[in-house]
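Researcher: Next sequence.
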Amino acid sequence: GCGNSALSHDLHELGYTDVTSIDFSPACIAAMRARYARCPGLRWAVMDIRALAFPDASFDVVLEKGTLDVLMVEETDPWDVSPQAAAAMRRVLAEVSRVLRPGGCFISITFAQPHFRKPHYAQEAFGWSLRHATCGDGDAGAFHYFLYVMRKGQPLDPRDVALGRRL
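Model: Next structure:
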């Protein structure tokens, strides 16, 4: 779900010249292709995050920024996520795990606090470790956001395994 974010272009400008971005919206992808046509290393594809059309182990890094939040938008109680939302999250995360190469990294940037999001990420079936950091500029009026980093092929901490069993 790249949407109309400039993140892909920003990464390109920082020297990451092999960036593939996806979104469910054909109009969005067409607009992004047109906007960044001068950047040959940026690729754009219309795709559903629940069924990625990429081969297994095709990426060193998968980065999502707020896309997974869409799966939780209709949830009324973050402490008690519906079976449908939990299943959708598992399906997407399983796809991310599938397309990551061994040693690859999944980075998730979200406003979702660790006590709500870590149980979803902490599933042994995904075959990755889990770390997180709280980010924000420290201003009293600013919201914190969270960075989660999963490394394919590294074990989960036993405490995270226990979190994952809650779902």
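Model: The beta strands are 19-23, 42-46, 59-65, 100-110, 131-135, 145-151. Residues 124 and 161 are 7 Å apart (CA to CA).
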